[in-house]
Amino acid sequence: xxxxxxxxxxxxxxxxxxxxxxxxxxxxxxxxxxxxxxxxxxxxxxxxxxxxxxxxxxxxxxxxxxxxxxxxxxxxxxxxxxxxxxxxxxxxxxxxxxxxxxxxxxxxxxxxxxxxxxxxxxxxxxxxxxxxxxxxxxxxxxxxxxxxxxxxxxxxxx
Length: 158
Description:
- The protein is an alpha/beta fold.
- The protein has a single domain, classed as 6-pyruvoyl tetrahydropterin synthase/QueD (Tetrahydropterin Synthase, Chain A, 2-Layer Sandwich).
- The protein has 3 helices and 7 strands, in the order ββαβαββαββ.
- It has a 7-stranded mixed beta sheet with strand order 4-5-3-1-2-6-7.
- The longest helix is centred in the middle third of the chain and has 12 residues, at 50-61.
């Protein structure tokens, strides 16, 4: 049996080196659907309560919400950090209260105080699924993830 839930993520990114519209900084509403497999618990009636899936996933994924996702070699990155420093928000602002758990993996590093995630690969739906799965695979029995960004999307089964 499978339980699933969907989380919304608002983010901005660009495809470094891409020829076309996506080379420019732009934003999306992304939707991540996480499917979790297991036996139905007779007491709760759930495989995993959907609110538990959301809570566990959101602990990490809130780093991506209302954040800028840039590749580590993007020349915008040093300029962005310089501007944030000049504005006094590089180390966070009092109204920046949505901060996820620390992320510093082979695929990405989050800077929650800056609403910034630096990724090793271009932030396509396919690569973001790989990143999200790497963050959550040890916390949830994930069988499938689907990420849509506007009219585009990708899925991966595990």
